[in-house]
Amino acid sequence: MKARVKWVEQMSFLGETESGHAVLMDGAPAAGGRNLGPRPMEMLLLGAGGCTSFDVILILKKKRQDVHDCEVQIEAERAETEPKVFTKIHMHFVVTGRNLASDAVARAIELSATKYCSASIMLGATAAMTHDFEIVEAP
After folding, report:
1. Can you give the pLDDT at residue 107?
2. Alpha-carbon gap, residue 116 to 110, rounded angstroms
3. Is 57:70 a contact under the CB 8 Å cutoff?
4. What NCBIfam families does this protein map onto (predicted)?
């Protein structure tokens, strides 16, 4: 896997993936940025959220659960001094489907957090990771 990050101007950087996708990252105005895109640390959270959501959906489908949607709401705290690593990350899953089994959802999240989601597992090396979930019945 390869990626490239190129400085655009001021505090804006363009990230390009080997798969041909691009995302603009920018710094906060106080740091010389213009707020044109997400901060790099926000991208880490988005990456972990995407990785774990992918796992949860895949696992639930393999368990033949009638899942329609999965959203993960992420809250994180960072250290106050440099390096300002994440110290706490909480992921709240909102899983929508028909007759979803609570134990199946809990197990899918656990498997993602402990076995499959590389991004979450890496972040968990420096941050206390917690998870919870709610199930919404699809109409």
Report:
1. 98
2. 9
3. yes
4. PRK10738.1 (NF008009)
Annotate 78-134 with DSSP letters as a single string.
E-SSSS--EEEEEEEEEEEEES--HHHHHHHHHHIIIII-HHHHHHTTTSEEEEEEE
How far CA 4 is from CA of 1, 20, 22, 43, 49, in Å, comes to: 11, 11, 9, 14, 21
The domains of the chain, with CATH numbers, are: 1-38 (2.20.25.10), 40-137 (3.30.300.20)
Question: pLDDT tens digit string along 49-105?
Answer: 999 999 999 999 999 999 999 999 999 999 999 999 999 999 999 999 999 999 999
- CA angle, corner 48, sides to 45 and 50, nearest 5? 105
pLDDT tens string 101-136:
999 999 999 999 999 999 999 999 999 999 999 999
Q: Are the C-beta atoms of residues 27 and 102 closer than 8 Å to each other?
A: no
